[in-house]
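wait is this the right file?? whatever heres the structure
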């Protein structure tokens, strides 16, 4: 059964989600964390950094496996997800960068890179705690609405909705990469626990369809209804369509 934790605002969402991650790392110092990028987890990551700096957390034995990366963007491109993770979390905590994994956006053969990443998830996983955001179209990772659920890490053609939503981070919508690599549903669903973050009215529809509608690959997050341990940390605006 899904748990819902109501957050007062973005800072509060960050504190609440960070408490869940912190408890995971305290209980199991060599945890495998599945991580997401985007706006939703920023306050969570900054809270983890603060607790680390206070001496309350130790990431030295933690492994992280990110959900996705744009095809064509390298570590030093400020729009790459690697760059995002380094700036928002990794550079400020004592994680061993040898234990940090994202798909390589510059891989010459993206399909082969997806196969490598899938093998890595199998080797390092299952993920103990997976952090997720949700797209306005109901995507998780870059598992876009489709007629089937993709099981494994795969190359995705981003939908116009996702390109438009992500254009805010780029100079122009044309500069948004058109392809990404994303963990598939198997890697996500095998995670022992999942925490999803969502804030703002623009997520209300996606959350409602995901958790109150039927399980449907047209709303990729709806697959989470089959997962035994999902916690949703969301503000009132994002939850406004729930009964
Ligand atoms: C990013 C990811 C995406 C985002 C989603 C929400 O790694 O997996 O599914 O979680 O697009 O993005 P924000 O949080 O920016 O609204």
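ok assuming it is, sequence goes like this
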């Amino acid at each position: 059964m899904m748990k819902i934790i109501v957050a007062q605002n973005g800072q509060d969402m960050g504190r609440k989600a960070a408490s869940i991650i912190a408890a995971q790392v305290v209980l199991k110092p060599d945890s495998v964390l599945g991580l997401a990028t985007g706006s939703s987890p920023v306050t969570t990551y900054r809270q983890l950094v603060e607790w680390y700096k206070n001496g309350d957390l130790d990431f030295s034995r933690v492994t992280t496996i990110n959900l996705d990366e744009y095809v064509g963007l390298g570590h030093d491109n400020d729009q790459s997800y690697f760059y995002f993770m380094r700036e928002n979390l990794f550079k400020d905590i004592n994680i061993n960068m040898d234990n940090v994994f994202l798909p390589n956006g510059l891989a010459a053969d993206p399909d082969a890179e997806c196969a490598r990443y899938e093998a890595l998830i199998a080797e390092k996983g299952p993920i103990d705690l997976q952090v997720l955001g949700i797209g306005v179209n109901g995507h998780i990772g870059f598992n876009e609405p489709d007629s089937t659920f993709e099981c494994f890490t795969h190359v995705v053609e981003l939908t116009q909705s996702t390109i438009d939503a992500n254009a805010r981070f780029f100079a122009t919508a044309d500069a948004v990469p058109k392809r990404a690599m994303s963990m598939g549903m198997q890697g996500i669903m095998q995670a022992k626990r999942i925490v999803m973050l969502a804030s703002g009215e623009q997520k209300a529809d996606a959350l409602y369809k995901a958790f109150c509608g039927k399980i449907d690959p047209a709303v990729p997050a709806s697959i989470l209804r089959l997962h035994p341990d999902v916690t949703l940390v969301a503000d009132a605006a994002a939850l406004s369509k729930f009964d």
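The CA atoms of residues 43 and 144 lie 25 Å apart. so i think its the right one actually
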